[in-house]
Amino acid sequence: MGLVNLRKIRRAKQEIGGREVAVVISPRPEQTRLGTTVWQTFKSLLTGMKITISYLFRPSTVVTQQYPENRETLQMFDRYRAQLKLVYDEAGGRLCNCCQICENACPNQSIKIEWTKNPDTKKKELERWIWRMDSCTFCNACVQACPSNSITFGNEFESAVYDRRLLVYTLNDKAGPDAKVWSAIEDPAEREKLMRKMDRYSGPIPLSGTSLPGNPSGKEG
Ligand code: SF4
Ligand code: SF4
């Protein structure tokens, strides 16, 4: 049995073929006794297993999750980005005012804001807030770009589907004015009259970001 003492490895210059070249000189393996070799092997194994073994004595700090067995109790970290969501005020009004800054900030056209202008108030009203999870990279640029904190990422992570079309979300379930108009009306029944229920998209898979679904007019997005 022999071990190479790594501390004795050194650089040097040697003349090879009439030229001086840089070489690394490694010492010959030193002969060791069998007992020493077994101990060194065991010691390096223990060093490698140190962290694993330490978790036996502090199981509450283990970070590995037994998923899906712990599906009912699993808590994801607050910063985990899973589902993009619209933010609403206390009265239930949608903060998004359709400025489309997030749409322009998205590097891969994963957002499409469809809006109409109310002829009476002359204000923008949201039709569909479309998020394409199938192309989203969860970079968070849209959330950071939004000037009114109207979108956020939730951490509900179970998003797997068998059909890619189901990854194109309409985030708003109702079309209509934003919180500034909606929440200013006190009568809940009057508020609801301003809103229209939105259906979730289900149709052919869009081939590119230029042909987003959920566009009732059928025009290119
Ligand atoms: S997280 Fe990034 S890729 Fe996803 S929608 Fe927002 S800006 Fe686009
Ligand atoms: S989510 Fe924010 S940035 Fe995007 S359209 Fe609404 S208000 Fe503008």
Features:
disordered C terminus, Alpha-Beta Plaits, 2 domains, two-stranded antiparallel ribbon, 221 residues, 3-stranded antiparallel beta sheet, binds iron/sulfur cluster, alpha+beta, 11 strands
- Quote the beta fraction: 15-25%
Number of helices: 5
- Shape descriptor reads elongated
Small molecules bound: iron/sulfur cluster
Class from helix and strand fractions: alpha+beta
Number of strands: 11
Number of domains: 2
**Which strands sit side by side, in order, in the main sheet?**
6-7-9
Succession of helices and strands: EEEEHEHEEHEEEHHE
Largest sheet: 3 strands, antiparallel
Helix content: 10-25%
Explain what the structure shows.
The chain has 221 residues and is an alpha+beta fold. It has 2 domains: 60 residues, no CATH class; 115 residues, Alpha-Beta Plaits (2-Layer Sandwich), CATH 3.30.70. The strands form 5 sheets. The protein has a 3-stranded antiparallel sheet with strand order 6-7-9. A two-stranded antiparallel sheet has the order 1-4. Strands 2-3 form a two-stranded antiparallel sheet. The longest helix is centred in the first third of the chain and has 24 residues. It is elongated. The site of one iron/sulfur cluster has 13 residues, from helix 2.
What's this, in brief?
This protein has 221 residues and is α+β, with helices and mostly antiparallel strands. It contains 5 helices and 11 strands.
Could you outline the blueprint of secondary structure elements for this entry?
Elements: E1 2-3, E2 10-16, E3 19-25, E4 30-31, H1 34-57, E5 83-86, H2 101-105, E6 111-117, E7 124-132, H3 141-145, E8 151-154, E9 168-170, E10 174-175, H4 179-182, H5 188-193, E11 196-197
Antiparallel strand pairs: 1-4, 2-3, 5-8, 6-7, 7-9, 10-11
The protein binds iron/sulfur cluster (SF4) (2 copies).
